[in-house]
Amino acid sequence: MTATRTLGLLICALFVGGCHVLGPTEPPVGEPETEWGPLAVVENTGGMEALAEGIVRIDPDCVWIGHRPTLLVWDTDRTRWEPPGRILFERNDGEIVVIENGRRFSMGGGYIQSNFEWVNAPNAGCPESHFLVSDVSPPD
After folding, report:
1. Sign (positive/negative) of CA torsion 64, 44, 42, 22?
2. pTM more than 0.85
3. What are the sequence ranges of the domains in the chain?
4. How far is 82 from 62, CA to CA, in rounded Å?
C-alpha cells in the first residue's frame, strides 16, 4: 500500500467515517452497461463550480441533498450506482468517494434546468430543483 493511499485512508477514517478510497480491484466508474438505480444521470457536462452542502438522502426513487431537497444529477463518466444503496463517484483528482445515505457531503457543480437528454431520468415525485454534481468531498 502506498504512503499516499495509507494517508488517505487514515484521514477518511479519522474525520469522515463515510468516505472510502477504493483500491485497484474495484470496477471502473461509468462502465457502459451500468445500472443506475434511483440516480438521475446525464452525459458528461462538467465544469460548474457552485456549492451544495448537506446530508445526502438515498431512497428507492431519488438521491437528494439538503433541508430544501435538491435532486442530485450525476455524470455518466464519473458515477456508478452500487446496490443496494451506495454511489461511487470519481473526484477530479481521480480518488473514488463512496456516498451513502445519511452522510454529510459538499458537492461542487451547478444548479440546472431539467432540459437535458437524460441517460436515466429522475422519477416522478423527485425534487424539482436539480444540482449537477461535478465534484464531491466530505466537509472538513
Report:
1. negative
2. no
3. 3-137
4. 14
